[in-house]
Amino acid sequence: LGHSFPTRRSSDLDLSRDTWKILKQMSMEESINQVEVELAMQCAPLITGMKISNLFSIGLDDYKAMYDILENSGISVYQMGLLDGRVLFLLYQENQLTSYLSRKDVAELLTRFGYDNVTPDCILDTCRRRYQKYMLEKKDFPHELGLILGYPPEDVEGFVSQQGKNSLYTGYWKVYKDPEAKKALFDRFEYAKESLIHLLSCGIGMKEIISVCS
Predict the structure, then answer these.
(1) Which of 10, 52, 130, 160 is the most buried (most CB within 10 A)?
(2) How far apart are CA 214 and CA 209, in angstroms?
(3) Average model confidence (pLDDT) for the chain?
(4) pLDDT value at position 141?
């Protein structure tokens, strides 16, 4: 999908060879909490404070462990839906998301997407309904999800107007303005992911990592 939904697994190809070796070793160690690894892989930009939100997809058997890790972390959890035995969550920083959605350029774009009420609760509830409908009917993708994920409004607007084509760069999302600056940002996201994997491999738990990052 245009907004790398639900997770940008293709970005894993950018991981260094050393990190891949660490991941392979961690996958074979029973002592390693694989939910922590998935959080690092899917949500490193959020955990390290570089992004206001991330989508997180996890198996039905593991979502309780996710809640245990995130308890009292300051990271809010919102369930988006269920697909193929996995649960999709939005993990986000509430204050930062509220501030971002209230920006004039973002609010104006949300109004174009049919939102009269741009409070976070209303936006999340409506987007979830639209997303679930999209998953059933495979049409009318809720592009406001890009804004909820903190994507720059010019890129969300560009994606919609260009129908997902003619992007200047594709990374965590499709870029339609300032590609060099956003490529550098995506590189920092990847560095954050690798850093969290290395910390976990050293025995530092995700709760401690989140505490330090916050």
Answers:
(1) 52
(2) 9
(3) 91
(4) 95
Residue 52 near residue 100 (C-beta atoms within 8 A): yes
Task: State the amino acid at position 167 in one-letter form.
Answer: S
pLDDT at 24: 83
pLDDT in tens, 69-79: 999 999 999 99
pLDDT for 14 = 65
Q: Provide the phi-psi class of 26: left if phi over 0, else alpha when psi is between -120 and 50, else beta.
A: alpha
Can you tell me the mean pLDDT for 3-24?
61
Q: Are 120 and 99 in contact (CB under 8 A)?
A: no
Dihedral over Cα of 1, 157, 52, 87: its sign: negative
What type of residue sits at position 15?
L
Rounded CA-CA distance 157/134 in Å is: 19
Backbone φ and ψ for 193, nearest 5 degrees, come out as -60, -50
Phi, psi of 113 (to 5 degrees): -85, 5
SS (H, E, C) 19-84: HHHHHHHHHCCCCCCHHHHHHHHHHHHHHCCCCCEEEEEEECCCHHHHHHHHCCCCCEEEEEEEEC
